[in-house]
Design goal:
single chain; 443 residues; alpha+beta; Outer membrane efflux proteins (OEP); four-stranded antiparallel sheet; two-stranded antiparallel sheet; 11 helices; 8 strands; disordered N terminus
């Protein structure tokens, strides 16, 4: 058991002491993995967001898989527009003997034939199949663009969150100096007999809470580092990523401009539009299935060359869609799928407009909050704290009021950086939906 004493006048009073609990907490937290790296984190070279975005586009396996899928889909039109492979046929007829190729020795009616046949779909069917396949390839390309934008937005979200955590860690570190001033003032008043030990204990408790918050921020940053490295396809053992300090990016684009860009450039909306065009072609193809397909063939037939002349046979076959139940069902399905695609596009357009409005409002409101904090709340809170601390030292203010002023500073500064991270994240999501470069070059 360890006893720690505070000296009050000439007496020794049992208590935690200014350096007791705080020093013990420091020792404990320094043993937490990652906590001691706080000072080293800012020594690492910062990585601009643009470099991470390029790396994600180059290395992310989801993006590569989506692009491979697009390349594979572009190979389909050439396959479905080609004619079916022709069929070659060898025919040999014996008379009077089951032995294959007995020849003309048994009968002059034995013959050997060589032929070829080709299936020919009704004119326009192959072209429609090719157009459908091209639309499928376009849809795959839209999906690949959507995956790319989603991955890049994920990188931006993680990057801005890391920036927020980095800034809040600096706040917690710097604001410990303010708390240190409070501790010293409380200790001085306690030693002089004008203050209470409770003031000292509250200051010590707040120091421990700060250390706990710092440790929690390190843990959260480590979790984001894991996710970010996964997205970038980096080894988890690679060095951590240090973001550039957060800066506010003004939004100078109106909602109507954003909505217009989204309607023309959003890959998910483009995919749905291509789906509609595809279903229109499927309806046309279903109508074509009511028409017959053909088969043409040619055969050279040779009997006894001494007594008979060679025969040349040309055939034309027609595949008649006599029972229309299949074709009618196919046409009905295509029409229903077309209506479904149109309804999906209406719903998707409305959802896109709502999501766009939501992020636009977040960007506007956080910009307003940043201005209020920058020009009013934070300077006022700091001025109030310094005035309260001076009054407390002169025994004109109680400790709890000064502590509340300090906590106001801590809360406002952290909320300010959270608002900045939310602002930049909202712009990143607007970029994802519209394709506009709203963030610019984040160096």
């Amino acid at each position: 058991m360890i006893s720690i004493f505070l000296r009050r006048g000439a007496s020794r009073v049992p208590g935690p002491g200014i350096s007791g609990v705080y020093a013990l907490a420091v020792c404990v937290l320094l043993a937490v993995p990652g906590f001691s790296q706080e000072a080293d984190a800012h020594k690492a070279a910062v990585t601009p967001l643009s470099a991470l975005l390029e790396e994600a586009e180059r290395n992310n396996p989801q993006i590569q898989a989506a692009r491979d899928g697009t390349q594979a889909a572009r190979q389909v039109p050439a396959q479905v527009t080609a004619l079916p492979d022709p069929t070659a046929q060898l025919q040999q007829v014996n008379v009077g003997s089951p032995r294959p190729f007995a020849g003309y020795s048994n009968s002059e009616f034995a013959n050997v034939g060589l032929g070829i046949s080709q299936e020919i779909p009704y004119p326009g069917k192959l072209k429609l199949r090719g157009e459908v396949a091209k639309r499928d390839a376009d849809i795959a390309g839209n999906r690949a663009d959507s995956v790319t934008r989603a991955v890049l937005a994920q990188v931006k979200d993680a990057y801005f969150h890391l920036g927020y955590l980095s800034e809040t860690l600096s706040i917690l570190k710097n604001d410990r100096q303010l708390l240190k001033q409070m501790e010293q003032a409380a200790d001085a008043r306690y030693r002089s007999g004008m203050g209470s030990q409770q003031d000292v204990l509250q200051a010590q408790l707040q120091q421990t809470k700060l250390l706990r918050d710092i440790s929690a921020r390190h843990l959260e940053a480590g979790t984001i580092q894991v996710s970010l490295k996964q997205v970038l396809n980096r080894p988890q053992s690679s060095p951590d990523i240090e973001p550039v300090p957060l800066k506010e990016t003004p939004l100078n684009t109106s909602y109507d401009e954003l909505l217009s860009a989204a309607q023309s450039q959003n890959p998910d909306l483009a995919a749905t539009q291509n789906m509609i065009e595809r279903q229109k072609l499927k309806v046309d193809a279903a109508h074509k299935d009511f028409y017959p397909d053909f088969n043409v063939g040619f055969m050279y037939d040779r009997t006894d060359p001494v007594q008979f002349r060679a025969q040349y046979v040309f055939t034309v076959g027609i595949k008649i869609p006599l029972h229309h139940e299949k074709q009618r069902s196919e046409l009905t399905q295509a029409v229903i799928e077309l209506d479904r695609s149109r309804n999906e596009r209406v719903a998707q357009t409305q959802q896109l407009a709502a999501d766009l409005q939501q992020q636009y409002l977040v960007a506007q409101q956080t910009a307003e909050m940043l201005k209020i904090n920058r020009e009013g709340s934070i300077p006022q809170a700091r001025a109030g704290f310094q005035a309260g601390l001076a009054a407390y030292r002169n025994n004109r203010q109680d400790f709890q009021a000064v502590l509340n002023s300090y906590l106001d500073i801590l809360r406002l500064e952290q909320e300010n950086w959270q608002s900045l991270a939310d602002h930049e994240t909202a712009l990143a999501r607007l970029e994802q939906m519209t394709g506009l470069p709203l963030l610019g070059e984040k160096e």
